[in-house]
Design a protein that fits this description.
Strand content: over 45%
Distance between the termini: 34 Å
Number of helices: 4
Structural class: alpha+beta
Strand order of the largest sheet: 1-6-5-4-2-7-8-9
CATH superfamily: Hypothetical Protein Pfu-838710-001
CATH class: Mainly Beta
Helix content: 10-25%
CATH topology: Hypothetical Protein Pfu-838710-001
Number of domains: 1
CATH architecture: Beta Barrel
Length: 174
């Protein structure tokens, strides 16, 4: 399994309309709206030198994935190194539930937009609120730091507080 890297912007967003206008005017494409439920698991020693380790099962539109990632903050933005596996059936989730225990559950409605190597998630997160998440996937030949700065400049006037951690952290304190 190959580990992938992305840089992220994540912030509370009081109004998605200006974000949608920016996305349209910059050539992003609306993909879909979907419901997601993420189950975050207890991990031994989750905080490591290079970031916080997380393991979750994501259920969306009758599909399931296991996502393992290590996230940290570099130059003011989140960085995630992650691996994703598809799940067949509920047995893997049930095994993880029993072996590790569920730490947090996050439910959200996600509106997905894409442009090239960038995903734009306009999330309505239950008990948390509206969150904009921009995921810039590292690819050979692309300057993801320049992309990060460009999107920060475009979106920052329309954003509230930036979020350093994961939705798991927000769900546990809400």
């Amino acid at each position: 399994m190959t580990t992938q890297l992305n840089r992220e912007i994540k912030a509370f967003c009081p109004d998605f309309d200006p974000i949608r206008d920016i996305l349209r005017s910059h050539g992003a494409s609306y993909v879909e709206e979907k419901e997601q439920v993420d189950y975050y698991y207890n991990l031994p020693d989750p905080v490591m030198q290079d970031g916080t380790r997380r393991l979750k099962v994501r259920l969306e539109n009758n599909n399931a994935q296991v996502v393992y990632y290590v996230e940290g903050v570099e130059a003011g933005a989140r960085t995630s190194r992650f691996q994703v596996w598809g799940l067949n059936g509920a047995q893997t989730k049930e095994m993880l539930d029993a072996a590790l225990g569920v730490k947090a559950v996050v439910r959200k409605q996600r509106e997905l937009w894409i442009k090239d190597n960038v995903k734009f998630n306009l999330d309505q997160v239950e008990t948390i609120g509206q969150v904009l998440e921009v995921e810039i996937l590292s690819q050979d030949g692309l300057d993801i730091e320049a992309q990060l700065e460009e999107y920060l400049g475009l979106f920052n006037p329309h954003l509230d507080e930036h979020i350093v951690g994961s939705n798991e952290d927000l769900a546990r304190i809400s």
